[in-house]
Structures are given as structure tokens and as C-alpha cells.
Amino acid sequence: MVPDATLRAALATTLDATSFDSLGEKYEGKVRDNYTTADGRRYIVVTDRISAFDRVLGTIPFKGQVLNRLAAYWFEKTRDVAPNHFLSMPDPNVLECTQCEPILAEMVVRAYVTGSTSTSIWTHYARGERVFCGHTLPEGLRKNQHLPAAILTPATKAPKGQHDVSGSREEILAQGQVTAADFDGAAEIAMRLFAAGQKICAERGLILVDTKYEMGKTTGGKIVVIDEIHTPDSSRFWMQATYEERFTKGLDPEPLDKDFVRRWYTEQGYRGDGEPPKLPDEIRVGAARRYIEAYELITGREFVPDTTPPNERIAKNLKI
């Protein structure tokens, strides 16, 4: 485990912005800065920014390195399950990928009734709704309970600063941003990946609770997985060993994802409206520990951070 002193020292040098214009055209997401080259490649720079409630809330030490290394791990691990855009990892914070045209619908897969945000399945269920994204849910479910089967709850892909909107297949298609063929192809890949992810995580003592996948199309029209897979940003993980006991007692499961940060904001009474409270350093360090623990548990590898100044290191490694 990375020493606390190392995490605290990194608070002042987190990667919160990039400017590598010589790489190509830039698109800035909530967490990733994307640069597209003239010859059809995309460099994805994973920053240390953390987002929740569809807002950027601050930075977490080494978060970008954790996410980037985990994404590379999963892209390699699941190549036989689904095609993806990953080519190489030239820097701890950077992926080199095939350029794709994004499919404008996120494929969200859920296996448990949980969550605290306005878009979460538990929020809807707790206020009496029994149909969620086209799925009829049984009566009597408790918070954090396993669903009878994993369900697909797709969402629109909102621009930075705007809220994603969940809906049924029919509702997403009615918006006209994605074709039925692309939606169904992406949905089939998502369910296949989720099943594979659950199996691999279970072998590591983790529960893959829910996740989101982003898909794109290559210039040849092939649907592939883009962005990231099964990271603490895109997925919710719980500790398997303590889940049943905590569920029986009505306690929340032990999280290994950014739900730690979401819960802190919820405790402050913040759920995404208005200006968010500043993220305290103690919560930033606590979140970093959980991201790193997730990496080490999932991969079985020790996380050794690169502590050199990130912008200078990236420029050197990418020769720009």
C-alpha cells in the first residue's frame, strides 16, 4: 500500500488539467482529456479529477494512474469477450487508442438495488416506483439487495456539466441519437462484459455491483468498447466477505469506489444541485486509498505510483 505521506505529498501536484495541443484536436470530458491525431489515433489522458452528480468535484492523488492502469488491465483481460479500442499505454496516465465515433448512449448494467443519487435505482424504488428504465421490479426489495437478474438501464450521454438521463430502450431510441441496430449491438456487448466482470471480480473477493460502458464505432463500422472498463469511476464494487452480514444488519456494504466520495457529499446534504462543498484533503486521501486498494485487489498487483510531475512526464513520454 502507498504510504500516507506519499498520498499527502501528492495533494499539491495532482493532474487537474492538460494542454498538449500538438497532439491533435482536444475534447475535454469530466475526467479524461482526449486528443485526436490526424492519422486516426486518440490519446486519452486520464486526469486526477473526480466527478459525481455529473460535476467535477476536485482531484484525488494518483487517481488518473489507477484508472488508466486498470482500464489497460481490463481491456487486455476482456479482448476475447468484446473488441475494444486499446492500443498501448505510453504513460501511466495515458492510453493510445483507435479513434472511434461514440455511440450516444451509455450502457449501464445493474445487479443490485442501490445508490444515492437522483438517477440511482434505489432512489426511484424507495419513493414507490416499480418500473425503472422499462424493467418491472418486484415488491419488497431492500436497499443493497441483489436483483433477480442483472438489468440494462441505459442513459443518454450528456455533455460535461449536464445530467445524464436514464430511460428504457424505447425512450433512448425515441431521442434519435442512436440507431436500434447500434443500441442492440452495444447492449449485447455490455451484458456479456458485465457477466465476465462479475466472474473475475468474484475470484478476487469483490462484488461488481453495477457499471457503465461506453461504446463507439470504428471507421469500418465495428462496435467496440471505448473509454474505460470496470474502474472505480465507472463501476461500483463491494467487499464480498462482509456483504451478507452487513446487508442482514441493514448496514451499507464496504465500498471500493467513488461511492466513498458520494456518501460524504450526501452526508453534507448535497445531491447535485447548486455549488458543491469543497472536497476536504482527508476525504481526498481516503478516496485515494480506496482507488489504490481496488486496483490491487482486482489485478493482484502492487500499485507503485509515478511521483514525477505529471504534465512534464507525459510530454516527455509522448515526445511532444
Q: How would you describe what is shown here?
A:
There is one protein chain. This protein has 320 residues and is an alpha+beta fold. The chain is built from nine helices and 16 strands. The longest helix has 24 residues. The protein is globular and about 60 Å long. Strands 8, 9, 12, 13, 14, 15 and 16 form a seven-stranded antiparallel beta sheet that branches.
Write the layout of secondary structure elements.
Elements: H1 4-9, E1 25-28, E2 32-36, E3 41-46, E4 49-52, E5 55-59, H2 63-77, E6 86-91, E7 94-98, E8 101-102, E9 105-113, H3 121-126, E10 131-132, E11 135-136, E12 145-152, E13 155-156, H4 169-174, H5 180-203, E14 206-217, E15 223-226, E16 235-239, H6 240-248, H7 259-267, H8 281-299, H9 310-317
Antiparallel strand pairs: 1-2, 2-3, 3-7, 4-5, 6-7, 8-14, 9-12, 9-13, 9-14, 10-11, 14-15, 14-16
Helix segment count? 9
Helix proportion of residues, in percent?
Answer: 25-40%
The N- and C-terminal alpha carbons lie at a distance of: 33 Å
The backbone outline, from C-alpha atoms, is: globular
As a percent range, the share of strand residues is 25-35%
Series of secondary-structure elements, N-terminal to C-terminal: HEEEEEHEEEEHEEEEHHEEEHHHH
**Helix/strand/pairing category:** alpha+beta
The pLDDT mean sits at 94
- Our Rg estimate from Cα atoms comes to 19 Å
User: Strand count, sense and closure of the main sheet?
Assistant: 7 strands, antiparallel
Number of strands: 16
> Which regions are unreliable across 5 or more consecutive residues at pLDDT < 50?
none
